[in-house]
Amino acid sequence: MQTLIANILSFWKPAFEIIILWVIIYNILLFFTGTRAFQVVRGLVIIIIIFFIAQQFQLQTLEWILTKLFAISVIAILIIFQPEIRRGLARLGQRQLFSIGLREKEVIEILERIVDAVDSLAQKRIGCIIAIEREANLKIYIDSGISLDCLVSSELIQTIFTPSTILHDGAMIIQGNRIVASGCLLPLTERTDIAAHFGTRHRAALGLSEETDALVVVTSEETGGISLAINGRLITGLKKDDLFRRLKTHVTHLHILGGNVEI
Do 127 and 221 meet the contact criterion of CB atoms below 8 Å apart? Predict the structure, then answer.
């Protein structure tokens, strides 16, 4: 019996380790996809493959060079990946352990109100920035603005972003089925490859999407264009239907719209 258990363990242990390593590597690649660090990650994978080939064929000189390179690369990786590591740790700290779900019908109704308001503001060339909380808690950004705590409505969103109002500047944050704050300060992206015509709102939208998993909708005062920032990417030139489809895709697959929901 002990022999049988030992045989089973000897088979499953390597398989279990391979599964764990695969999950870790997959999530690392998924995390860095779309960032400037992804090219570096891909290069490191290629170097590791070459290293194993050198070991198999006993290419001692090449193996020695790669061994020394790996020793130096530990510090290099920490320096190169510093922004991504900081953002990753920030996201881990912001994860909500408990989330209260909204029914899909309620989620769709809320998104329709948001999209209607954004489309109307865009047509009038009124600038706005709206952050929709998902899994990462946005409390630190909520605290930087004016607390509202009211149900989401198209009319209220348009009123808040009317240029003559006090809360026009800054971001609105939507948590669950409520507008929890407006006039909020968001982190600006540190990227230098952003087009010059994008202003502070677009840079703030990108910055928040880099730090958290929030969906950030922006309208431009200059062009009336609608953009969506997600996971450090800025999708521009969106129409009403396309914006709704993208928001629905990224919200309803989680079965939640924020974490602190009153139903």
Answer: yes
Q: Phi/psi of residue 43, each to 5°?
A: -65, -40
Q: How far apart are CA 130 and CA 180, in angstroms?
A: 11
Tokens 């507008």 -> residue: 179
Chain centroid to CA 24: 18
* Residue 76: partners with Cβ closer than 8 Å, 6 or more residues away: none
Entry pTM: 0.64
Handedness of CA 128, 209, 176, 171 (dihedral sign): negative
Strand order through the sheet with 178-184: 146-151, 178-184, 171-175, 128-132, 215-219, 226-230, 233-235
CA-CA distance, 214 to 202, in Å (whole number)? 14
Across the chain, which has 263 residues, the per-10-residue mean pLDDT values are 61 75 71 58 72 76 74 67 60 46 81 96 96 88 92 95 89 93 93 83 93 93 94 93 93 49 33
> In a 3-state reduction of DSSP, which class is residue 114?
helix
Q: Which two tokens stand for residue 187?
A: 């982190």
Strands 128-132 and 171-175: parallel
Q: What is the CA radius of gyration of the chain?
A: 23
Distances (CA, A) of 156 to 4, 150, 243, 251: 68, 9, 19, 22
Q: 231: helix, coil or strand? A: coil
CB 134 within 8 A of CB 211: no
* Domains defined for the chain, CATH in brackets: 2-94 (no CATH), 104-252 (3.40.1700.10)
